[in-house]
Amino acid sequence: MILPHETEAWARLARRVPDAPAERGPLVEAAGLLFDARRTRLPEGLVADLAALAEAAGLAGQLAAMVSGERVNLSENRAATHMALRDPERRTDHAPARAAAEALRARGLADVILIGIGGSALGPALLVDALGAAGDGPRVHVVSNIDGVALSRALAGATPARTAVIAVSKTFTTLETMTNLESALAWMRAGGVAEPERQLWAVTAAPARAAALGLPPHHILGFAESVGGRYSLWSAVGIALAVRCGWAAFEALLDGAHAMDRHLLSQPFAANAPQLAGAIGVWQACHLRRPTRAIFAYDERLRLLPAYLQQLEMESNGKSVARDGRPLPHPTAPITWGGTGTDAQHAVFQLLHQGSHLDPVEFVAVAQPGHTLDVTHHRQLLANCFAQGQALEHGRPFEVALARSGGDAALAAQRSFAGGRPSTTILLDALTPERLGALIAFHEARTFTFAALTGLNPFDQWGVELGKEVANALAAGRGEIDDVSRDLMARVQSSAA
């Protein structure tokens, strides 16, 4: 296997001078989303070199292999079939989820507690938080943390008789999920529900384990082993949106994602928004060696997007060996972090504008507001968003700062901004189920592109599995326990006593 870094296309990128004259980056519209990379400060001709890398890495072939259901997750010997779940011609697995969602909506429930962790919780939480205000179904609370405070808060305002629980776990063995589920069922029994299993639904790739709890067969919703957790919201895992907003909203989410998929698979590299985003990320992370990428959502409804993308990007590409097991000689995925605008401007943007880091920043905004308050709110919100990119790019020269500082050179130095700091903007025309689906599919595709252009497998997560193994061993008091863990656990036990 020839890895991307072994090709002449990679070597050509490595020979580029980062501070060469820059040109405007690409501007592409796709599925109601505008990808604006004009402020990425790319060296002249870089897009053509990135296109050559995409060809040398076999990006088109890797995409085709995934879409056709070939075994692209080599370390787990699996396909990756999440895109099929949103393809109208292959969308065949959703009938049980639709029936379950409609049944839950018809029960007169006040609350639904969805219990999961990782991709089994981050996706549903994002969907409900972004779109749930328009829903007319029961309130949906997503619980992931094993810390009992999280479940206690979700149960605090609920009534057992008018509450349903949805347990989401691919294996139906995840320690955090099963512990929270047991506590939720105990809460129901204590509240007078004789058979809480009748108010429990399971979403899993291991239906036999769910059936062992005594669930009725129609309460068990399956999804394929070939659908990874962080790519699973297109399956029955996304039932939270359908429960809160109705099945039509979930179908629209799938339609929006499929529209982005069509763009991904049909457009040439220079006009392909997710491929360009992923390739530019390779330039920034692997060649310029920028260790982080910041994402700021300038819409309160998308406040969970940075957390969702943290898992998608870092769990997918946070690896240092290639698909064939060989170590890679270059950095791979950057650390994804971020927050919500305009709050973040009053916290972390000082470093972005004047700190020693030149890491890329991405802004996400929505043209139409999600409220009916005075238009001033949204106008100021978007003005702040667009102003940040402008300020990062142009800065403030020392001479201008000197004039504003009354000739005080020391003060002027502190009020100067070098500029030349890269950013991109993603602008949605509205935040509808279709547009949210397109936005999430865009990020999935850029993540896949990054993996293809660096030789990674974006579908396994052995680092996560290691943490699970050690945690299960420590909790059970078995396996190898080092002296630090032993001391810490002893201190906890002593405190509890």
Can you describe this structure?
This protein is an alpha/beta fold and 497 residues long. The chain folds into 2 domains: 268 residues, 3-Layer(aba) Sandwich (Rossmann fold), CATH 3.40.50; 129 residues, Glucose-6-phosphate isomerase like protein, domain 1 (Rossmann fold, 3-Layer(aba) Sandwich), CATH 3.40.50. The chain is built from 19 helices and 13 strands. The chain has a 6-stranded mixed β-sheet, with helices on both faces. Strands 6-5-7-8-9 form a 5-stranded parallel β-sheet, sandwiched between helices. The radius of gyration is 24 Å and the shape is globular. The N and C termini lie far apart (58 Å).
What characteristics describe this protein?
single chain; 497 residues; alpha/beta; Rossmann fold; six-stranded mixed sheet; five-stranded parallel sheet; 19 helices
Largest sheet, described in full?
6 strands, mixed
Unreliable segments of 5+ consecutive residues: none
Q: Supply Rg.
A: 24 Å
What is the CATH fold-level name of the largest domain? Rossmann fold
Instruction: Tell me the β content.
Output: 5-15%
What level of helicity do the residues show? 40-55%
What is the spatial order of strands in the main beta sheet? 2-3-13-12-10-11
Question: Structural class given helices, strands, pairing?
Answer: alpha/beta
Class of the largest domain in CATH? Alpha Beta
Quaternary structure state of the chains depicted: single chain
Global outline = globular
**CATH architecture type of the largest domain:** 3-Layer(aba) Sandwich
Task: Please count the beta strands (DSSP E, at least 2 residues each).
Answer: 13
Mean pLDDT: 95
Q: Cα distance, first to last residue?
A: 58 Å
Q: Any idea how many domains?
A: 2
CATH superfamily of the largest domain: Glucose-6-phosphate isomerase like protein, domain 1
Helical segment count: 19
